[in-house]
Amino acid sequence: MKNLHGKLDVPEAVAAIARRLEDHGYETWAVGGAVRDALLGGSRGDWDLATAAKPQTVRQLFRPSYPVGIEFGTVGVRGADGNVYEVTTFRRDIETDGRHAVVEYADDLDEDLARRDFTVNAIAYHPLRHSFHDPFHGWEDLQRRTLRCVGEPTTRFAEDFLRVLRGLRFAGRYGLEIEPATWEALVDAVPNLPRLSGERIREEILKVLASPEPSPSLDLYRESGALVVLIPEFASVDEAGWRLILGSVDGIPAYRLRLRLVTLLAPAAPEIEPLMKRLRFSNVELRDVLTLSMALGVPLPESGDVVAGRRWLRAIGPENARDTLRLHLRRQRALGADAEARSSLAVRARLVLDVLRRGDPVTVADLAIGGDDLKALGLRPGPEFGRLLEACLDAVIEDPDLNGREQLLERARKLITD
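Above: the chain sequence. Below: its structure as tokens.
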């Protein structure tokens, strides 16, 4: 087994913060995910530091600084590169309830590392001496591709049930096998997950969806029972349906997080709104997911039927067309559609995109008349406005050449008198 050694690529701004603290007599180490990811050959910008200095001392030494989590001993320090780095005083837990911990300042680094969740997250690196401190053998676990709790697993999960979800995410994201005792304790802790706040659960789900390939973590959610405990709406999804979801989610680029979320929640379509409210998604996120879920349920137009293409755009909203087509494409690929089906989808998608490019009228806003024109006809604002404009839109969707001001005013007059 190789020994832990080497030099990590720590940002100079982080090293400068550590240097200032050390120059004033305060032991300081880089800790957490950035160290883990660097050892795995990756990189990230959010380097965290653990130090013997108390928060008030950190704030005195650095200007500007921010109390980003002062109750937990964390101060945000702006580095020379303009980024804000978290500097946290060594801590130990003195009381936990599965959701929150009461902490006090610790005397040394070992106490701080002993309170962390998994051994791979309990490796410290000194950014000035370029040395590692790994009292729980996290490096060996990384080499073995193993996820193991620091200390006794049952106790570790009972301290904070969010560690169950973090463990599933880490194992899937980094291709780690959860060692048996840790897995057994994790599964035993799954029934306690509803005790977590909706916000904490939502953030974990979004972190999974933001990873390069979410399916390994999502599979572990399902295997452990966490998926159905958190989202009972998935209880009726069979294996084939689950494989389709995973294939579709993985096929969507990570930067299209909203589309991944829509795809994951598709089986819960009738209950998406209460589900998302339960998990404290924002109103914007809820609206976007509901809109695209509805759009997926509107059948695509048949090839060659341009009028149906305009009707489809009217039904889903032209601003949602490209994302809806992307979702159809990823679903088709996940299904392993044959060449004929792929060709059919491509033809129908091109039809819709051609309508968009031409700028054919598909919404009331595209009409050559509006509310002011109806007022000029003697109508008062009210529901009748909407009825008349929708009727005019019906006509121009059938024949865009009818979208002229005088033609539509004449049509409106006839509708008024009918």
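DSSP finds 21 helices and eleven strands in the chain.
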